[in-house]
Design goal:
38% helix; 33 strands; 6-stranded parallel sheet; alpha/beta; 7-stranded mixed sheet
Length: 934
Amino acid sequence: MSRYSEYLKEIEERKDQNLHPKPIDGAALLSEIIEQIKDVDNEHRSDSLHFFIYNVLPGTTRAAEVKATFLKEIILGEAAVEEISPAFALEQLSHMKGGPSVEVLLDLALGDDKAIAEEAAEVLKTQVFLYEADMDRLGKAYDSGSEIARDILESYAKAEFFTKLPEIEEEIELVTFIAGVGDISTDLLSPGSDAHSRSDRELHGQCMFEHNKEQQNALRTLQEKHPNKRVMLIAEKGTMGVGSSRMSGVNNVALWIGKQASPYVPFINIAPVVAGTNGISPIFLTTVGVTGGIGLDLKNWVKKHDDAGNLVVDEAGEPILEQTYSVDTGTVLTINTKTKKLYKGDQELMDVSSAFTPQKMEFMRAGGSYAIVFGKKLQTFAAQTLGMDVPPVFAPSKEVSHEGQGLTAVEKIFNKNAVGTSGATLHAGSYVRAEVNIVGSQDTTGLMTSQELEMMAATVISPIVDAGYQSGCHTASVWDRKSQENIPRLMKFMHDFGLITARDPEHKYHPLTDVIHKVLNDITIDDWAIVIGGDSHTRMSKGVAFGADSGTVALALATGEASMPIPESVKVTFEGKMKDYMDFRDVVHATQAQMLKKFKGENVFQGRVIEVHIGTLPSDQAFTFTDWTAEMKAKASICISQDDTLIESLEIAKGRIQIMIDKGMDNEQQVLQGLIDKANERIAQIQSGEKPALAPDANAHYYAEFVVDLDIINEPMIADPDVNNEDVSKRYTHDTIRELTYYAGEKKVDLGFVGSCMVHKGDIKIVSKMLKNLEEKYGKVEFGAPLVVTAPTYNIIDELKEEGDWEVLQKYSGFEFDDAAPKSTARTEYDNILYLERPGCNLCMGNQEKAEKGDTVMATSTRLFQGRVVKDSDRKKGESLLASTPVVVLSAILGRTPTIEEYRTAVNGIKLTQFAPPLKQLTSGPAPSHQISY
C-alpha cells in the first residue's frame, strides 16, 4: 500500500471522529503527493494540490524540506504547476517559518537571477527565524560585496520585519464566557488523561472542558451570536490556568477562541483572550504571551469592608467578596488599547495597562513572543555586521534600579545572567533577557516541544545551556501502545538535538523513568543558575527555576535565553522548634496556612518568588518546600542555604550525576562530566570563601516578610479539596489547610499514595520504618485500604536495597513493578495491599493511573484538582487530600484518618526530618538602612 493510500485510510478513520486530515510532517508522503500533482491526469491531483498548499507542517519537518525544495523548483522554472505561480510559491515560503524555507530563500536571493533574487529578498526581509548558519551566509555574502545581502541586512537592522506589521487595533470587542467558578486548572482545558493526543492539535481540541460537549456547544452558540467579537474565557471568582504549565491548554483555548496563525497551516491558532477574577497563573500567562494573546486580571470581586473600613468575614473567618461589575456569559465589553481601559458600553470598568505593557503589545502585534525574541537577535546581528548602532525599534527593556537598595536572591541571579542591559544594578520590575543554565523537557509535553523546535527551525541545543534533560516520568506507569509509539520517537529527537535522555535511542542503557524534577534538582549544580522546565513543579532547591510551557522550553533550548520581568520576592524565615513527631511536609502546609491568616486571606505569594531561608536542609529535602510553591501560586522559589549545607547538596548531586555517567547516559559533548567539573569548581569557591552560598543583601527590599512559627505546629497538616463547600469557588484550591484532629479519626480513606516529586529517599525509608514499628506493636500489619508507593528515582531504590529498607517493603507488597514486563494497561481496581510501582509520577499525573472513581485518596502528591488523581462517581465526589508520608501510610493501614494518638504511636522513634531554623541570618552585605515589613 502506498503512503498516500495509507493517508486516505487514516482520513476516513478520522472522519468518524469528526476530524480533518492530519497535517503532514513526513517526507515520503509529501513526495508522493508532489508526484501526483505533477501528473495532470492523476485522479488524486486536486486533493494532492490542496494537501500540499494547506496541510503541511512548517519549520524543519521532513515534509517542510520537501515542500521548500519543490517550491524552489517552481520559482526557478524547473517545475510548472498551473495553480502555483512563482509569486504564490514565494508566498508559501514566507509562511514556513525558517529552516528549509529560509535556506531556499537565501539560495534564491543570493543566486544569479537578479529578478528572482530581488523578489526572494523582499520575502526574506519578513522572516525572523534565522539561525547562526543562515546569518553566517548573509554575512559572508555582504563581505563579498553582495548588494542584495546589504539590502536585506539594512532591512533587518531597521527591524522592518516588525515595523511593517499592522498595528494592534485601537478597540477590541469582547464577549465573555464563564469557563468555571473558582480556580480553573489547566486540566479543564487540556486533561492529563489526553496527554497522548497533544501533538495532534485538532484531536486534542476535542478534550476542551474535559470533553464537556454541552459546554463546548454553549461556546459555539455564543460565537455564532457574536461573530465579530473575540470571546474572553473567564475563571469567575478564581485564577485562570493554575496547576500545570501546559502549552496544550493555551493551544486548546486558542483553537476554540483564537485566530488562525497562517492560512496555509491548519489548527495552529494564536491570540486567545483569557481572564480571571484573581488573575492568571504566572506560568499560564507566559504561555498566553507565546501566542500573542491577552490575559486580564479582572478584579471584579473584591473583599467587603464595613463602614469603619474593617474586613467583613464569614462564619469560617473567610473574607466575604462582593461583585464590583458583572462578567456573566454573554456580556459585551471593549478594550481600548490606547487608553488601556476596559469598558462596558461607555462605562469605564478598570485599568488593564498591566496586560498591555509595551513588551506584551509587541507580542500581540508580532503574533507571539518567539517572533520578538528572534527578531531582536536578528536585528542585533544585522546592525553589528553593518557596523552601526542598533536602531531603537523595540520597546526598551525596562530597567528598575534603586540607588542604595540591596538585592534579593532572585535579583542577584538575574543581574548575573542578564544580557543586553545598560549595566545598571537591576531590581524587581525590570524586564530582562537572561541566559538559561539548565533546561528540562518532560515526556507528555516533550512531543509538543519537539514540534515547537521544528517550527522554529532549530536543530541543535544552544551552546549557552549547560545541560538539557528529556524525562520519561509522566508516561512511566503504563507502557501502552501510545507510549510505545510516541516516547521512543521523542527520545530520538531530543537525543539528536543534544539533550541527555531518559531512554537511549540505541538501547545502550536501561530506560529510566525518574521524576524529571528530581533529576533537574541533581543536575542543577549552581545556586546562581536559572532553570527552565516544562512543568509547573520545575522549582529547584538550588538556583531559581521556572516552570514553563512546551514552547518556552523550546525557546530556551534553541536560544539559551528566556525573557521575563524580575519578580518581586517574599522572604520566609522560621522561628521556634519542631516537635519530634512532626514531618517537614507539615511545615510546608503550615507556611501556607499561617501566611493566609497573617495577611487576612491575601495570598502574598501569588506571582512572586518565595525566598525561603531554609538553611540546614540539603537539596533533596528542601525540594519538598520549593516543589509545593507551585500550589502556593508562587512564580518560583529560592532556597537560601548555609555554606556547609550547600556543599553537602552538591556532593549528593555529583554522586548522582556520576551514576548517570556510569550507566552510559553522557553524550559526545560530555555534558554530564562538565556538570561534575562545575560542581567541583563551585565547592572550591565556597570552601575558599571566594564566593559563598547565594544569600540576599541585608538591605534588600521585599514585597513582604513572613516568619513561620514552628512552635505552634503541633499536629499533622492536611490540604483538603473541600469538595462539598457551598461556595463553589472555594473547592479544589490548595488553601484549605486543616489539622489532623479536624477529622476526629473518622474520615474514611479508600487509597493511600506515597509518591510524586514531593517525596525523597527519607520518605520511602519512613514507610519501611513505620511498617516495622507497627509490626512490633501489633504482630502484623494489615491494610484497610490500598497503599501505592512510587519512589521518585531508581537511585533511591538502589540505595534502599543497600540499606535494607526495600526488603521490608517487598515483604508487605502484593505487587512490585517489573521493568522486563511493564504494565501495558492502567489499573482500574485496587486490592487492600501495598503496591510498589515503577519510579515516575504515577497517580499524581493522572494521565495513566487513577484511583477508583469516587474514592477518597490520602496522598503525598501536589494535586487535588477535580478529576486529576480521582474522578467523581455517581455515589460521591472523588477527593484527593494531601498530607505527609506518615499520615498517608497510617491512613491506608487503618482505612481512615488516624487520631493524633494513633499517629504519634506509629511514628515513635522515627526521625521524620532534620529541619531546624538556621542559627544566624543568611544575608550578605551591609546592615539594613530601612526595611519594609508586613
